[in-house]
Amino acid sequence: MANTSVAAKKTPAKRHAAKKLVRIHQVVKYPDPVLAARGEEVTVFDEELKTFVEEMFESMYEAQGIGLAAPQIAVSKRIAVIDLSFKKNPEEKIALVNPQIVEMQGKQLEEEGCLSLPEIREKVSRAAWVKVRAQDVHGEWFEVEGEELLARALQHEIDHLDGILFIDKISRLKRELVMRKIKKAQKNGEW
Ligand SMILES: [Zn+2]
Question: What is the edge-to-edge ordering of all strands in the sheet holding 129-135?
């Protein structure tokens, strides 16, 4: 999911020499086929997975996002990360492995964006509250509940793991307008 905060957008893409070097993955854009595929279940919980999740957080921050799913960096696996605080509060970092929505309630209609669909924003209807069951990097199951933006981010990222983008959830007319915008951007070399 794309960050909506203007302040966060200004963060320069600089590296600190003292910091451990983490691989930054490029975010793929629609219509890359990896975005339409169902991600594979994660069955091995090793060091490689831990490193990969760290890389996902860093790649998300680099792209100015608050949520990222593995298929968005061309890895077709059921892994997603969310940090609504955008680096400000480590407690808000959520790494989800093999997540499933187990309960949902209510409705909300808010604008949504996606790192794989830059500059596109549309109102999307989502559940107002969700409960998600997922594994952590060690394979331990846990539950996370969220409302408002967190509920939206959880649903958006879990959709990615099933090959669903937010533009799949808007009206046909709006989708056609979005497609036109994308085609124009592609033509101008901006996509
Ligand atoms: Zn997205």
Answer: 67-69, 79-83, 93-105, 129-135, 141-147
